[in-house]
Automatic annotation (TrEMBL):
One CC-aspect GO term: cytosol
Species this chain originates from: Olea europaea subsp. europaea
Top EC class, one word: oxidoreductase
SUPFAM superfamilies linked to this entry: Glyceraldehyde-3-phosphate dehydrogenase-like, C-terminal domain, NAD(P)-binding Rossmann-fold domains
Protein name: Glucose-6-phosphate 1-dehydrogenase
Lineage: Eukaryota, Viridiplantae, Streptophyta, Embryophyta, Tracheophyta
Domain Glucose-6-phosphate dehydrogenase C-terminal span(s) in chain numbering: 245-466
InterPro entries listed in its UniProt record: G6P_DH, G6P_DH_AS, G6P_DH_C, G6P_DH_NAD-bd, NAD(P)-bd_dom_sf
Record-listed E.C. numbers: 1.1.1.49
PANTHER family assigned: GLUCOSE-6-PHOSPHATE 1-DEHYDROGENASE (PTHR23429:SF0), GLUCOSE-6-PHOSPHATE 1-DEHYDROGENASE G6PD (PTHR23429)
Family: Belongs to the glucose-6-phosphate dehydrogenase family.
Amino acid sequence: MASGEWHCEKRFKNESFKNEDENVLETGCLSIIVLGASGDLAKKKTFPALFNLYGKGFLQSDEVHIFGYARTKISDDELRDRIRGYLPQSKEDAEDVSKFLQLVTTLLVIFLIINLRRMMRLILLLLMQIKYVTGSYDSAEGFQALDKAITEQEISKNIREGLSRRLFYLALPPSVYPQVCKMIKSYCMNKSDLGGWTRIVVEKPFGKDLASAEELSSQIGELFDEPQIYRIDHYLGKELVQNLLVLRFANRLFLPLWNRDNIDNVQIVFREDFGTEGRGGYFDQYGIIRDIIQNHLLQVFCLVAMEKPVSLKPEHIRDEKVKVLQSVIPIKDEEVVIGQYEGYKDDPTVPDNSNTPTFATMILRIHNERWEGVPFILKAGKALNSRKAEIRVQFKDVPGDIFKCQKQGRNEFVIRLQPSEAMYMKLTVKQPGLEMSTAQSELDLSYTQRYQGVVIPEAYERLILDT
Ligand SMILES: NC(=O)C1=CN([C@@H]2O[C@H](COP(=O)(O)OP(=O)(O)OC[C@H]3O[C@@H](n4cnc5c(N)ncnc54)[C@H](OP(=O)(O)O)[C@@H]3O)[C@@H](O)[C@H]2O)C=CC1
Ligand SMILES: O=C1O[C@H](COP(=O)(O)O)[C@@H](O)[C@H](O)[C@H]1O
Protein backbone atom coordinates (compact mmCIF):
# COMPACT_ATOMS: atom_id res chain seq x y z
CA MET A 1 0.00 0.00 0.00
CA ALA A 2 1.31 3.51 -0.84
CA SER A 3 2.93 5.34 2.07
CA GLY A 4 0.16 7.90 2.42
CA GLU A 5 -2.66 5.40 2.39
CA TRP A 6 -4.48 4.59 5.55
CA HIS A 7 -3.81 1.19 6.80
CA CYS A 8 -6.04 -1.03 8.96
CA GLU A 9 -3.23 -2.13 11.19
CA LYS A 10 -1.82 1.36 11.59
CA ARG A 11 -5.14 2.67 12.82
CA PHE A 12 -5.74 -0.09 15.33
CA LYS A 13 -2.18 -0.02 16.59
CA ASN A 14 -1.93 3.70 17.14
CA GLU A 15 -1.41 3.61 20.90
CA SER A 16 -1.21 7.34 21.53
CA PHE A 17 -4.79 7.99 20.43
CA LYS A 18 -6.25 4.84 21.92
CA ASN A 19 -9.02 4.58 24.49
CA GLU A 20 -8.77 1.59 26.83
CA ASP A 21 -11.93 -0.09 25.57
CA GLU A 22 -11.76 0.55 21.82
CA ASN A 23 -9.93 -0.84 18.80
CA VAL A 24 -11.12 -4.41 19.21
CA LEU A 25 -11.43 -5.96 15.77
CA GLU A 26 -14.79 -7.65 15.33
CA THR A 27 -15.78 -10.38 12.93
CA GLY A 28 -19.16 -11.60 11.75
CA CYS A 29 -21.79 -10.42 9.31
CA LEU A 30 -22.04 -6.62 9.17
CA SER A 31 -25.13 -5.06 7.59
CA ILE A 32 -24.99 -1.34 6.90
CA ILE A 33 -28.44 0.06 6.28
CA VAL A 34 -28.66 3.55 4.80
CA LEU A 35 -32.10 5.01 5.52
CA GLY A 36 -32.91 7.89 3.18
CA ALA A 37 -30.86 6.13 0.49
CA SER A 38 -32.57 8.12 -2.25
CA GLY A 39 -31.26 11.41 -0.86
CA ASP A 40 -28.44 13.86 -1.29
CA LEU A 41 -26.29 12.85 1.68
CA ALA A 42 -26.51 9.18 0.78
CA LYS A 43 -25.41 9.61 -2.83
CA LYS A 44 -22.80 12.32 -2.28
CA LYS A 45 -21.18 11.18 0.92
CA THR A 46 -22.41 7.99 2.63
CA PHE A 47 -22.18 5.52 -0.24
CA PRO A 48 -18.91 6.93 -1.64
CA ALA A 49 -17.38 6.73 1.86
CA LEU A 50 -18.47 3.11 2.15
CA PHE A 51 -16.93 2.34 -1.23
CA ASN A 52 -13.68 3.97 -0.18
CA LEU A 53 -13.58 2.03 3.10
CA TYR A 54 -14.22 -1.14 1.19
CA GLY A 55 -11.47 -0.30 -1.29
CA LYS A 56 -9.03 0.30 1.56
CA GLY A 57 -9.83 -3.05 3.14
CA PHE A 58 -11.76 -1.82 6.18
CA LEU A 59 -14.96 -3.52 5.06
CA GLN A 60 -14.54 -7.14 4.04
CA SER A 61 -16.65 -8.41 1.14
CA ASP A 62 -17.35 -11.74 2.81
CA GLU A 63 -18.73 -10.01 5.90
CA VAL A 64 -20.40 -6.80 4.77
CA HIS A 65 -23.69 -6.18 3.10
CA ILE A 66 -25.14 -2.79 2.29
CA PHE A 67 -28.85 -1.92 2.16
CA GLY A 68 -30.64 1.23 1.09
CA TYR A 69 -34.11 2.15 2.36
CA ALA A 70 -36.38 5.04 1.35
CA ARG A 71 -39.89 5.83 0.13
CA THR A 72 -38.93 6.63 -3.48
CA LYS A 73 -39.56 3.66 -5.72
CA ILE A 74 -36.35 2.81 -7.53
CA SER A 75 -34.67 -0.46 -8.40
CA ASP A 76 -31.34 -1.75 -7.03
CA ASP A 77 -29.78 -0.86 -10.38
CA GLU A 78 -31.20 2.67 -10.39
CA LEU A 79 -29.80 3.24 -6.92
CA ARG A 80 -26.38 2.01 -8.06
CA ASP A 81 -26.56 4.34 -11.07
CA ARG A 82 -27.24 7.33 -8.82
CA ILE A 83 -24.27 6.46 -6.63
CA ARG A 84 -21.96 5.74 -9.55
CA GLY A 85 -22.19 9.41 -10.53
CA TYR A 86 -20.55 10.45 -7.26
CA LEU A 87 -17.60 8.10 -7.45
CA PRO A 88 -14.61 9.62 -9.27
CA GLN A 89 -15.73 9.64 -12.89
CA SER A 90 -14.24 11.26 -15.92
CA LYS A 91 -13.93 10.46 -19.59
CA GLU A 92 -10.65 8.86 -18.67
CA ASP A 93 -12.39 6.62 -16.13
CA ALA A 94 -15.02 5.58 -18.65
CA GLU A 95 -12.27 4.37 -20.94
CA ASP A 96 -10.81 2.39 -18.05
CA VAL A 97 -14.15 0.69 -17.49
CA SER A 98 -14.26 -0.66 -21.00
CA LYS A 99 -10.55 -1.54 -20.88
CA PHE A 100 -11.13 -3.37 -17.68
CA LEU A 101 -14.04 -5.33 -19.10
CA GLN A 102 -12.05 -6.31 -22.14
CA LEU A 103 -8.90 -7.18 -20.28
CA VAL A 104 -10.36 -8.76 -17.21
CA THR A 105 -8.30 -11.92 -17.61
CA THR A 106 -5.03 -9.99 -17.64
CA LEU A 107 -5.59 -8.34 -14.32
CA LEU A 108 -1.94 -8.04 -13.39
CA VAL A 109 -1.08 -6.15 -16.55
CA ILE A 110 -3.91 -3.70 -15.97
CA PHE A 111 -2.64 -3.06 -12.47
CA LEU A 112 0.54 -1.75 -14.02
CA ILE A 113 -1.30 0.42 -16.49
CA ILE A 114 -4.01 2.07 -14.45
CA ASN A 115 -4.19 3.57 -11.03
CA LEU A 116 -4.75 0.97 -8.32
CA ARG A 117 -7.42 2.92 -6.48
CA ARG A 118 -9.52 3.49 -9.57
CA MET A 119 -9.14 -0.15 -10.40
CA MET A 120 -10.44 -1.10 -6.97
CA ARG A 121 -13.49 1.10 -7.47
CA LEU A 122 -14.32 -0.55 -10.76
CA ILE A 123 -14.09 -3.94 -9.16
CA LEU A 124 -16.25 -2.78 -6.30
CA LEU A 125 -18.92 -1.48 -8.60
CA LEU A 126 -19.10 -4.84 -10.20
CA LEU A 127 -18.93 -6.86 -7.02
CA MET A 128 -20.83 -4.94 -4.41
CA GLN A 129 -24.45 -5.90 -4.20
CA ILE A 130 -26.42 -3.07 -2.73
CA LYS A 131 -29.99 -4.06 -1.98
CA TYR A 132 -32.66 -1.38 -2.00
CA VAL A 133 -35.88 -1.74 -0.02
CA THR A 134 -38.79 0.67 -0.48
CA GLY A 135 -41.05 1.66 2.39
CA SER A 136 -42.27 4.57 4.46
CA TYR A 137 -40.63 5.74 7.66
CA ASP A 138 -43.55 4.84 9.89
CA SER A 139 -44.89 1.61 8.44
CA ALA A 140 -44.39 -1.75 10.10
CA GLU A 141 -44.64 -3.35 6.66
CA GLY A 142 -41.63 -1.54 5.25
CA PHE A 143 -39.39 -2.26 8.22
CA GLN A 144 -40.49 -5.90 8.37
CA ALA A 145 -39.48 -6.21 4.71
CA LEU A 146 -36.16 -4.58 5.54
CA ASP A 147 -35.59 -6.94 8.46
CA LYS A 148 -36.40 -9.89 6.21
CA ALA A 149 -33.85 -8.74 3.63
CA ILE A 150 -31.16 -8.29 6.28
CA THR A 151 -31.90 -11.61 7.95
CA GLU A 152 -31.79 -13.45 4.61
CA GLN A 153 -28.41 -11.96 3.97
CA GLU A 154 -27.16 -12.90 7.43
CA ILE A 155 -28.34 -16.47 6.97
CA SER A 156 -26.83 -16.70 3.49
CA LYS A 157 -23.50 -15.64 4.97
CA ASN A 158 -23.84 -18.64 7.25
CA ILE A 159 -23.26 -16.60 10.36
CA ARG A 160 -24.85 -17.43 13.69
CA GLU A 161 -27.64 -14.90 14.28
CA GLY A 162 -26.17 -13.40 17.40
CA LEU A 163 -22.86 -12.53 15.80
CA SER A 164 -24.45 -10.31 13.21
CA ARG A 165 -23.96 -6.58 13.45
CA ARG A 166 -26.46 -4.04 12.17
CA LEU A 167 -25.55 -0.41 11.60
CA PHE A 168 -28.48 1.86 10.74
CA TYR A 169 -27.40 5.13 9.16
CA LEU A 170 -30.16 7.77 9.26
CA ALA A 171 -29.42 9.90 6.17
CA LEU A 172 -32.74 11.60 6.76
CA PRO A 173 -34.19 14.86 8.01
CA PRO A 174 -34.11 14.76 11.85
CA SER A 175 -37.89 15.30 11.95
CA VAL A 176 -38.36 11.60 11.13
CA TYR A 177 -35.71 10.21 13.51
CA PRO A 178 -38.14 9.33 16.35
CA GLN A 179 -40.49 7.32 14.16
CA VAL A 180 -37.64 5.61 12.32
CA CYS A 181 -35.92 4.70 15.59
CA LYS A 182 -39.19 3.22 16.87
CA MET A 183 -39.50 1.10 13.74
CA ILE A 184 -35.91 -0.13 14.00
CA LYS A 185 -36.42 -1.00 17.65
CA SER A 186 -39.69 -2.82 16.94
CA TYR A 187 -38.74 -4.74 13.81
CA CYS A 188 -35.09 -4.63 12.87
CA MET A 189 -32.93 -5.29 15.91
CA ASN A 190 -30.22 -7.90 15.86
CA LYS A 191 -32.20 -10.86 17.15
CA SER A 192 -29.95 -12.27 19.83
CA ASP A 193 -27.44 -11.09 22.35
CA LEU A 194 -24.74 -13.63 21.60
CA GLY A 195 -22.21 -10.97 20.75
CA GLY A 196 -23.64 -9.02 17.82
CA TRP A 197 -25.02 -5.51 18.06
CA THR A 198 -27.38 -2.90 16.62
CA ARG A 199 -26.20 0.70 16.34
CA ILE A 200 -27.73 3.82 14.92
CA VAL A 201 -26.05 6.83 13.39
CA VAL A 202 -27.95 10.11 13.45
CA GLU A 203 -27.08 13.20 11.47
CA LYS A 204 -27.04 16.81 12.51
CA PRO A 205 -28.97 19.01 13.20
CA PHE A 206 -30.19 17.31 16.37
CA GLY A 207 -33.54 19.10 16.57
CA LYS A 208 -34.45 22.73 15.91
CA ASP A 209 -33.93 24.35 19.28
CA LEU A 210 -33.14 23.37 22.85
CA ALA A 211 -36.58 21.93 23.58
CA SER A 212 -36.75 19.82 20.42
CA ALA A 213 -33.12 18.68 20.82
CA GLU A 214 -33.86 17.53 24.37
CA GLU A 215 -37.04 15.84 23.24
CA LEU A 216 -35.22 14.08 20.40
CA SER A 217 -32.51 12.96 22.78
CA SER A 218 -34.98 11.52 25.25
CA GLN A 219 -37.04 9.84 22.50
CA ILE A 220 -33.96 8.12 21.06
CA GLY A 221 -32.59 7.50 24.55
CA GLU A 222 -35.72 5.56 25.51
CA LEU A 223 -35.14 3.16 22.63
CA PHE A 224 -31.35 2.76 22.56
CA ASP A 225 -28.55 2.79 25.09
CA GLU A 226 -26.06 5.61 24.75
CA PRO A 227 -23.23 3.41 23.38
CA GLN A 228 -25.56 2.35 20.55
CA ILE A 229 -26.13 5.95 19.42
CA TYR A 230 -23.65 7.81 17.19
CA ARG A 231 -24.29 11.49 16.52
CA ILE A 232 -22.38 12.57 13.45
CA ASP A 233 -20.95 15.96 12.56
CA HIS A 234 -18.76 15.25 9.55
CA TYR A 235 -16.77 18.49 9.85
CA LEU A 236 -15.04 16.85 12.80
CA GLY A 237 -13.74 14.20 10.41
CA LYS A 238 -12.10 16.69 8.04
CA GLU A 239 -8.33 16.45 8.02
CA LEU A 240 -7.67 20.07 8.93
CA VAL A 241 -10.32 20.11 11.62
CA GLN A 242 -8.68 17.04 13.14
CA ASN A 243 -5.41 18.93 12.90
CA LEU A 244 -6.63 21.85 15.02
CA LEU A 245 -5.90 20.19 18.35
CA VAL A 246 -2.41 19.20 17.24
CA LEU A 247 -1.70 22.60 15.79
CA ARG A 248 -2.80 24.48 18.87
CA PHE A 249 -1.47 22.26 21.61
CA ALA A 250 1.63 20.63 20.12
CA ASN A 251 3.31 23.82 18.89
CA ARG A 252 5.09 26.10 21.28
CA LEU A 253 4.91 28.82 18.66
CA PHE A 254 1.16 29.27 18.99
CA LEU A 255 0.79 28.94 22.76
CA PRO A 256 1.71 32.53 23.70
CA LEU A 257 0.03 34.08 20.64
CA TRP A 258 -3.42 32.48 20.84
CA ASN A 259 -5.24 35.12 22.86
CA ARG A 260 -6.74 38.63 23.03
CA ASP A 261 -3.31 40.26 23.41
CA ASN A 262 -2.32 39.24 19.89
CA ILE A 263 -5.41 38.27 17.94
CA ASP A 264 -7.73 40.93 16.55
CA ASN A 265 -10.51 38.69 15.22
CA VAL A 266 -11.23 35.17 14.01
CA GLN A 267 -13.35 34.37 10.96
CA ILE A 268 -14.85 30.95 10.36
CA VAL A 269 -16.40 30.80 6.93
CA PHE A 270 -18.35 28.24 4.89
CA ARG A 271 -19.34 29.01 1.29
CA GLU A 272 -20.96 26.79 -1.28
CA ASP A 273 -21.35 27.54 -4.96
CA PHE A 274 -24.55 25.54 -5.35
CA GLY A 275 -28.04 25.84 -3.92
CA THR A 276 -30.52 23.31 -2.55
CA GLU A 277 -30.83 21.30 -5.78
CA GLY A 278 -33.91 19.34 -4.75
CA ARG A 279 -33.05 19.16 -1.04
CA GLY A 280 -35.85 21.53 -0.02
CA GLY A 281 -37.64 18.65 1.75
CA TYR A 282 -34.89 18.75 4.36
CA PHE A 283 -33.25 22.16 4.03
CA ASP A 284 -36.30 24.40 4.07
CA GLN A 285 -37.36 23.05 7.47
CA TYR A 286 -33.98 24.02 8.95
CA GLY A 287 -32.19 26.84 7.08
CA ILE A 288 -28.50 27.67 6.96
CA ILE A 289 -28.08 28.46 10.67
CA ARG A 290 -29.25 25.01 11.76
CA ASP A 291 -27.76 23.27 8.72
CA ILE A 292 -24.21 24.62 9.00
CA ILE A 293 -23.58 27.20 11.72
CA GLN A 294 -25.07 25.56 14.82
CA ASN A 295 -23.15 22.34 14.22
CA HIS A 296 -20.22 22.41 11.74
CA LEU A 297 -19.03 25.97 12.38
CA LEU A 298 -19.68 25.81 16.10
CA GLN A 299 -17.58 22.65 16.41
CA VAL A 300 -14.74 24.38 14.56
CA PHE A 301 -15.22 27.47 16.75
CA CYS A 302 -14.90 25.30 19.89
CA LEU A 303 -11.67 23.73 18.70
CA VAL A 304 -10.20 27.15 17.88
CA ALA A 305 -11.26 28.81 21.13
CA MET A 306 -11.28 26.14 23.85
CA GLU A 307 -8.61 25.59 26.48
CA LYS A 308 -6.26 22.59 26.40
CA PRO A 309 -8.13 19.41 27.36
CA VAL A 310 -6.77 17.20 30.15
CA SER A 311 -6.18 14.45 27.57
CA LEU A 312 -7.45 13.35 24.18
CA LYS A 313 -10.27 11.34 25.73
CA PRO A 314 -13.59 12.34 24.14
CA GLU A 315 -15.03 13.35 27.53
CA HIS A 316 -12.13 15.68 28.21
CA ILE A 317 -12.42 17.34 24.81
CA ARG A 318 -16.19 17.64 25.24
CA ASP A 319 -15.76 19.27 28.65
CA GLU A 320 -13.55 22.01 27.20
CA LYS A 321 -15.95 22.59 24.34
CA VAL A 322 -18.84 22.95 26.76
CA LYS A 323 -16.87 25.44 28.85
CA VAL A 324 -16.12 27.72 25.94
CA LEU A 325 -19.71 27.52 24.68
CA GLN A 326 -20.95 28.47 28.13
CA SER A 327 -18.72 31.55 28.01
CA VAL A 328 -20.31 32.83 24.79
CA ILE A 329 -22.57 35.78 25.54
CA PRO A 330 -26.01 36.01 23.84
CA ILE A 331 -25.71 37.09 20.22
CA LYS A 332 -26.93 40.64 19.56
CA ASP A 333 -29.56 41.15 16.84
CA GLU A 334 -27.50 43.95 15.29
CA GLU A 335 -24.58 41.53 14.92
CA VAL A 336 -26.51 39.11 12.71
CA VAL A 337 -27.23 39.33 8.98
CA ILE A 338 -29.39 36.78 7.17
CA GLY A 339 -30.43 36.44 3.55
CA GLN A 340 -31.90 34.15 0.93
CA TYR A 341 -30.37 33.69 -2.50
CA GLU A 342 -32.35 34.71 -5.54
CA GLY A 343 -33.86 31.65 -7.16
CA TYR A 344 -34.09 29.60 -3.94
CA LYS A 345 -37.88 29.37 -4.27
CA ASP A 346 -37.57 28.19 -7.89
CA ASP A 347 -36.48 24.80 -6.51
CA PRO A 348 -39.71 22.74 -6.76
CA THR A 349 -38.97 21.14 -3.36
CA VAL A 350 -39.01 24.60 -1.69
CA PRO A 351 -42.38 26.15 -0.74
CA ASP A 352 -43.23 29.29 -2.76
CA ASN A 353 -43.58 31.44 0.34
CA SER A 354 -40.42 30.27 2.11
CA ASN A 355 -38.46 32.82 4.14
CA THR A 356 -35.81 30.30 5.21
CA PRO A 357 -32.32 31.86 5.27
CA THR A 358 -29.69 30.41 2.95
CA PHE A 359 -27.02 32.88 4.14
CA ALA A 360 -26.14 34.01 7.65
CA THR A 361 -23.30 35.77 9.38
CA MET A 362 -23.00 36.57 13.07
CA ILE A 363 -20.53 37.58 15.72
CA LEU A 364 -19.86 35.39 18.73
CA ARG A 365 -18.19 37.02 21.73
CA ILE A 366 -16.53 34.98 24.44
CA HIS A 367 -16.55 36.33 27.95
CA ASN A 368 -13.36 34.83 29.35
CA GLU A 369 -9.77 35.73 30.11
CA ARG A 370 -8.38 34.52 26.80
CA TRP A 371 -10.90 36.00 24.38
CA GLU A 372 -12.66 39.03 25.91
CA GLY A 373 -13.03 41.63 23.14
CA VAL A 374 -12.10 39.34 20.22
CA PRO A 375 -14.99 38.91 17.75
CA PHE A 376 -15.45 35.46 16.24
CA ILE A 377 -17.21 36.04 12.94
CA LEU A 378 -19.12 33.01 11.66
CA LYS A 379 -20.40 33.08 8.11
CA ALA A 380 -22.21 30.48 5.97
CA GLY A 381 -23.99 30.65 2.66
CA LYS A 382 -25.30 28.54 -0.16
CA ALA A 383 -25.30 29.51 -3.86
CA LEU A 384 -22.42 31.96 -3.45
CA ASN A 385 -19.67 32.59 -6.00
CA SER A 386 -17.20 29.99 -4.70
CA ARG A 387 -16.90 26.86 -2.56
CA LYS A 388 -14.62 27.25 0.41
CA ALA A 389 -14.41 26.53 4.13
CA GLU A 390 -11.69 28.25 6.11
CA ILE A 391 -10.58 29.73 9.40
CA ARG A 392 -8.82 33.10 9.32
CA VAL A 393 -7.03 34.25 12.43
CA GLN A 394 -6.16 37.95 12.02
CA PHE A 395 -3.46 39.33 14.27
CA LYS A 396 -3.26 42.85 15.68
CA ASP A 397 -1.04 45.48 14.11
CA VAL A 398 2.56 45.74 15.30
CA PRO A 399 2.89 48.72 17.67
CA GLY A 400 5.42 51.38 16.59
CA ASP A 401 5.45 50.64 12.86
CA ILE A 402 8.94 51.83 11.87
CA PHE A 403 8.60 50.34 8.35
CA LYS A 404 5.30 52.11 7.66
CA CYS A 405 4.04 48.78 6.38
CA GLN A 406 0.71 48.45 8.16
CA LYS A 407 -1.27 49.37 5.07
CA GLN A 408 0.11 46.30 3.33
CA GLY A 409 -1.85 44.07 5.69
CA ARG A 410 -1.65 42.29 8.98
CA ASN A 411 -0.25 38.97 9.98
CA GLU A 412 -2.90 36.41 9.27
CA PHE A 413 -2.97 32.67 9.83
CA VAL A 414 -5.31 30.85 7.47
CA ILE A 415 -6.44 27.24 7.77
CA ARG A 416 -8.24 26.16 4.62
CA LEU A 417 -10.38 23.12 5.32
CA GLN A 418 -11.44 22.79 1.68
CA PRO A 419 -10.94 22.72 -1.20
CA SER A 420 -7.19 21.99 -1.37
CA GLU A 421 -6.32 21.71 2.30
CA ALA A 422 -3.71 24.25 3.33
CA MET A 423 -2.36 26.35 6.15
CA TYR A 424 -0.56 29.59 5.45
CA MET A 425 0.74 32.49 7.44
CA LYS A 426 0.74 35.95 5.92
CA LEU A 427 3.88 37.81 6.91
CA THR A 428 5.55 41.10 6.13
CA VAL A 429 9.05 40.54 4.72
CA LYS A 430 11.77 42.62 3.19
CA GLN A 431 11.27 42.92 -0.54
CA PRO A 432 14.38 41.18 -1.98
CA GLY A 433 16.72 43.75 -3.55
CA LEU A 434 18.89 46.71 -2.68
CA GLU A 435 16.16 48.83 -1.17
CA MET A 436 14.80 48.45 2.34
CA SER A 437 11.17 48.10 1.38
CA THR A 438 8.57 45.65 2.66
CA ALA A 439 6.06 43.33 1.05
CA GLN A 440 3.40 40.83 2.15
CA SER A 441 4.37 37.22 1.63
CA GLU A 442 3.33 33.79 2.85
CA LEU A 443 4.70 30.80 4.69
CA ASP A 444 2.72 28.21 2.83
CA LEU A 445 1.88 24.65 3.84
CA SER A 446 -0.30 23.46 0.98
CA TYR A 447 -1.06 19.80 1.45
CA THR A 448 -0.95 18.86 -2.23
CA GLN A 449 2.63 20.11 -2.41
CA ARG A 450 3.88 19.07 1.02
CA TYR A 451 2.20 15.65 1.10
CA GLN A 452 2.44 14.60 -2.52
CA GLY A 453 0.89 11.22 -3.15
CA VAL A 454 -0.93 11.20 0.17
CA VAL A 455 -4.62 10.51 -0.18
CA ILE A 456 -6.55 12.46 2.42
CA PRO A 457 -9.57 10.41 3.53
CA GLU A 458 -13.03 11.89 3.19
CA ALA A 459 -14.50 12.99 6.52
CA TYR A 460 -17.21 10.34 6.39
CA GLU A 461 -14.71 7.51 5.91
CA ARG A 462 -13.13 8.31 9.25
CA LEU A 463 -16.44 8.70 11.05
CA ILE A 464 -18.19 5.65 9.63
CA LEU A 465 -15.09 3.61 10.39
CA ASP A 466 -15.31 4.72 14.00
CA THR A 467 -18.92 3.54 14.23
N1 LIG B 1 -26.51 16.54 1.79
C1 LIG B 1 -25.36 16.66 2.43
O1 LIG B 1 -24.29 16.95 1.84
C2 LIG B 1 -25.31 16.46 3.90
C3 LIG B 1 -26.45 16.21 4.64
N2 LIG B 1 -26.36 16.00 6.00
C4 LIG B 1 -27.55 15.68 6.80
O2 LIG B 1 -28.21 14.54 6.27
C5 LIG B 1 -29.59 14.60 6.53
C6 LIG B 1 -30.34 14.37 5.22
O3 LIG B 1 -29.97 15.39 4.32
P1 LIG B 1 -30.04 15.25 2.74
O4 LIG B 1 -29.76 13.87 2.31
O5 LIG B 1 -29.24 16.31 2.18
O6 LIG B 1 -31.57 15.60 2.49
P2 LIG B 1 -32.61 15.11 1.39
O7 LIG B 1 -33.59 16.21 1.22
O8 LIG B 1 -31.91 14.60 0.19
O9 LIG B 1 -33.36 13.94 2.18
C7 LIG B 1 -32.90 12.61 2.25
C8 LIG B 1 -34.08 11.67 1.99
O10 LIG B 1 -35.02 11.80 3.05
C9 LIG B 1 -36.33 11.71 2.55
N3 LIG B 1 -37.02 12.95 2.93
C10 LIG B 1 -36.74 14.21 2.52
N4 LIG B 1 -37.56 15.09 3.12
C11 LIG B 1 -38.36 14.38 3.93
C12 LIG B 1 -39.41 14.71 4.82
N5 LIG B 1 -39.78 15.98 4.99
N6 LIG B 1 -40.00 13.70 5.50
C13 LIG B 1 -39.61 12.44 5.34
N7 LIG B 1 -38.62 12.06 4.50
C14 LIG B 1 -38.01 13.01 3.81
C15 LIG B 1 -36.24 11.56 1.05
O11 LIG B 1 -36.32 10.17 0.74
P3 LIG B 1 -37.67 9.46 0.24
O12 LIG B 1 -38.66 10.52 -0.12
O13 LIG B 1 -37.24 8.63 -0.92
O14 LIG B 1 -38.06 8.63 1.39
C16 LIG B 1 -34.83 12.01 0.74
O15 LIG B 1 -34.30 11.35 -0.37
C17 LIG B 1 -29.85 15.96 7.15
O16 LIG B 1 -29.99 15.81 8.53
C18 LIG B 1 -28.58 16.76 6.82
O17 LIG B 1 -28.27 17.70 7.83
C19 LIG B 1 -25.15 16.03 6.62
C20 LIG B 1 -24.01 16.28 5.95
C21 LIG B 1 -23.98 16.53 4.53
O1 LIG C 1 -23.98 19.14 6.49
C1 LIG C 1 -24.00 19.64 5.39
O2 LIG C 1 -22.84 19.76 4.72
C2 LIG C 1 -22.82 19.95 3.32
C3 LIG C 1 -21.43 20.45 2.98
O3 LIG C 1 -20.48 19.50 3.34
P1 LIG C 1 -19.02 19.56 2.70
O4 LIG C 1 -18.27 18.53 3.42
O5 LIG C 1 -19.19 19.26 1.25
O6 LIG C 1 -18.53 20.92 2.94
C4 LIG C 1 -23.88 20.94 2.88
O7 LIG C 1 -23.94 20.98 1.48
C5 LIG C 1 -25.21 20.51 3.42
O8 LIG C 1 -26.18 21.52 3.16
C6 LIG C 1 -25.20 20.27 4.89
O9 LIG C 1 -26.38 19.60 5.29
